[in-house]
Amino acid sequence: MLRSGVVVALGGLAVAAPAPGHHGGGWGSFPSAWGPSSASSSSESGTTTAASDAIPTSFTLDSQIPAITTLPPTGTEPGAAPSLVSSATTGITTHGPYSGTPTTIGAEHASTTLSATIPTMANTLATYYNSNGKLTEPEPTPYMPAGGVGVNGTLPVYMVQSDFDFESVALGLHQEYIELDLFHYAAEIFSEQDYLDAGLTKEDRDLIEFMSIQEAGHASLLTNMLGEAAPKQCTYDYPFTTVREFMDFNVKLTRWGESGTWGFLSHLNSKEVATLIVQAEAIEARQQAAVRQMLGLHPFPFWFAPGVPQSWHWTLLAQYISSCPENNTRLVWQNFPNLYIDNQPNPNRWSPNDTAPGEGQIGNRAGNPSSSDIPEDESCVNVNVTGYSCGPAISRDRNEPLSFAGREIFLHWDDPGLAVGPNNSYVTSTTAGEPAFVAWVGQLNVTFTPLTITGNNTGSSYQPPNEVFETDPAVNETVFLALTDSDLYVTPFNLTMLNPHVRALGIFLAG
Ligand SMILES: *[C@@H]1O[C@H](CO)[C@@H](O)[C@H](O)[C@H]1NC(C)=O
Ligand SMILES: *[C@@H]1O[C@H](CO)[C@@H](O)[C@H](O)[C@H]1NC(C)=O
Ligand SMILES: *[C@@H]1O[C@H](CO)[C@@H](O)[C@H](O)[C@H]1NC(C)=O
Ligand SMILES: *[C@@H]1O[C@H](CO)[C@@H](O)[C@H](O)[C@H]1NC(C)=O
Ligand SMILES: *[C@@H]1O[C@H](CO)[C@@H](O)[C@H](O)[C@H]1NC(C)=O
Ligand SMILES: *[C@@H]1O[C@H](CO)[C@@H](O)[C@H](O)[C@H]1NC(C)=O
Ligand SMILES: *[C@@H]1O[C@H](CO)[C@@H](O)[C@H](O)[C@H]1NC(C)=O
Ligand SMILES: *[C@@H]1O[C@H](CO)[C@@H](O)[C@H](O)[C@H]1NC(C)=O
Ligand SMILES: *[C@@H]1O[C@H](CO)[C@@H](O)[C@H](O)[C@H]1NC(C)=O
Q1: Candidates 324, 327, 331: which one to mutate for ligand 1, based on the most atoms within 8 Å of Cβ?
Q2: pLDDT at 375
């Protein structure tokens, strides 16, 4: 009985028993010293007498403090937690490219499509402006201002409420599943020595494994909000062969995962679903910062994280899914042709300027890592000179930045019509004309720079210097690059309007 009772009781305790030392009736199993006054007096006597300047080297039995044995309810017991949709720590799936013939081709689509593009409309609803901070309407209840969504007593429903919601959350679920697999896989395939060689410890490796378990929780949450048609976990094909390349790939993959989610969250019909997803995404953002630290990069060299449309997310993610189970629910989103940054700065070099052509993006998938296979005297991994080291650290300042405003970037891109994604069953497409601009999507900004065409599907441009707010360069951390046929003005909440103009899409490690 106590097992399930404790969950409810601990929450209620603060309300029911505000006076220290008073625990009400029925709580005989709590030790009588529970109140703060007796707890503080016993800890005082413990620490002051033992104080010394010596660093501890032996760790014997500590003070015996008031505690009870308590376990979470399980199975059919009241208050038991729901089960996970996927095992968190076992069952490494097979990996590698898909070589079969897909049973179906193309994105999910409805029987009818209403229009090729969406026209812009004036917004007649956003009229509220408060110039003096005084309430303009009666309060619904004391201490409650008028307005808001979902605060009028309507019961919350934690389920997707439209095709838009379903397809967005299904995409998010694919991201959770690849991270679940990726973190676990890399924790397993690289040895403890491999991690040590990359400047990481067993505890760092444990952190990666812990992130994998978090993903099992996220995947379960999203599955529950989708229902029985939720996509299932797939088989993946990764582009790295070393711990450093794994971290580099992580830096990119967690960026499109996080930014893809910020991109759709506020557009969801279901605010209940958005509320729970934002609570998962807060953890994903921490994972992103941690993997940057493991690659010896500044953890968050920007003030705002960008959001991108679902089709950008799906374009980058789908390339690493090799096959999905039979009849897996298909997604509606577009796969754009890839844009490659030939001189993507290599984070393994103490001199990123020296990145050789092609080395900054190995292979032919847009989110691939830079090669970590460079001569030791050019690598920053084991350098421990401030400004030049890129070994794991809480933070790093690079004397020679990865990239900088005015740096020329050399690009090439694919034609549409390529088979990509799970079972090679999706096809890349574009409705854009000849590319003329590079759209740099970083922080809150979309900045267009002119594209210079230098050959068949090749060109170059220069990194723009503009700032979000004074002193904060818009292009830093990991940014999204789109080749476009137009410099259409778009902002964070209507970035999707750019999609018909996107000729190719890539991702750039700017800092
Ligand atoms: C993808 O491949 C898997 C494994 O071979 C198969 O079970 C599934 O039906 C395939 N799906 C498609 C769409 O081809
Ligand atoms: C209560 O809020 C919901 C969602 O915000 C809204 O759809 C509904 O019309 C509101 N009901 C009333 C009675 O105002
Ligand atoms: C896939 O769908 C077909 C047609 O509905 C069905 O016959 C088959 O059993 C399904 N396979 C699985 C694994 O669910
Ligand atoms: C990297 O290249 C830029 C542009 O040519 C140059 O200004 C900068 O000095 C170079 N960095 C170093 C450390 O040489
Ligand atoms: C740099 O590396 C050397 C040799 O491993 C070591 O002796 C020194 O303490 C290191 N310096 C710093 C600041 O970590
Ligand atoms: C990105 O941020 C880092 C950390 O503040 C800074 O060192 C670097 O110069 C920035 N890059 C650009 C292009 O401003
Ligand atoms: C141009 O480049 C694309 C992509 O690499 C390739 O598919 C196409 O064949 C090339 N066309 C010519 C005329 O070389
Ligand atoms: C960058 O974004 C900020 C915030 O939305 C905006 O005020 C600013 O005008 C944008 N700058 C450019 C160059 O687009
Ligand atoms: C996007 O929103 C901005 C307002 O923030 C507006 O000026 C712009 O015209 C919109 N772009 C499109 C293509 O609708």
Answers
A1: 324
A2: 96
Q: Distances from the Cα of 191 to the Cαs of 198, 209, 239, 472, in angstroms?
A: 11, 13, 18, 40
Nearest residue by C-alpha to atom 2 in ligand 6: 301
Residue 264 Cα to ligand 9 midpoint, Å, equals: 17
Q: Are strands 408-413 and 419-420 parallel, antiparallel or unpaired?
A: unpaired
- Looking at ligand 8, which residue's alpha carbon is closest to its atom 3? 468
Q: What is the mean pLDDT of each run of 10 residues along the chain (511 residues)?
A: 38 34 37 39 46 87 93 94 80 82 96 92 93 97 97 97 98 98 93 96 96 97 98 96 98 98 98 98 98 98 98 98 97 98 97 93 95 96 96 96 98 98 98 98 98 98 98 98 98 98 98 97
Residue from 364, 456, 503 to probe ligand 7 pocket by mutation (most atoms less than 8 Å from CB): 456
d(CA 217, CA 87): 10
Nearest by Cα to 463 from 397, 406, 419: 406
The pLDDT score that the predictor gives to residue 27 is 35
Q: Which of 127, 86, 505, 476 is nearest to 337 (CA)?
A: 505
**456 C-beta closer than 6 A to ligand 7:** yes
Which pLDDT score, from 0 to 100, does residue 4 have? 40
DSSP state of 175: H
Nearest CA to 221 among 145, 160, 163?
160
- What predicted TM-score, i.e. pTM, was given to this entire model? 0.90
Contact criterion met (CB below 8 Å) for 294 and 204: yes
362's CB contacts (< 8 A; 6+ apart) are: 239, 368, 369, 370, 371
Residues 6+ apart with CB under 8 A from 363: 239
Q: What are the b/e assignments for 347-368, b being 16+ CB within 10 Å?
A: bbbbebeebeeebbbbeebbbb
- Could you tell me the distance, in angstroms and rounded to a whole number, from the CA of residue 420 to the centre of ligand 7? 18
DSSP codes joined into one string, 393-454: -S----SS-S--TT-EEEEEEPPS--EESGGG-EEB-----S--EEEEEETTEEEEEEPEEE
Q: Retrieve residue 433's tokens.
A: 């004309």
Query: What are the Cα distances from residue 61, in Å, to 26, 55, 58, 66, 460?
Result: 32, 17, 10, 15, 65
- The predicted pLDDT at position 390 comes to 97
Question: Which residue's CA is the nearest one to ligand 7's atom 7?
Answer: 415
How many C-beta neighbours within 10 Å does residue 398 have? Answer: 22
Confidence (pLDDT) at 52: 79
Compute the distance between CA of residue 284 and CA of residue 287 in angstroms, rounded to an integer: 5
Ligand 4, atom nearest to 351 Cα: 13
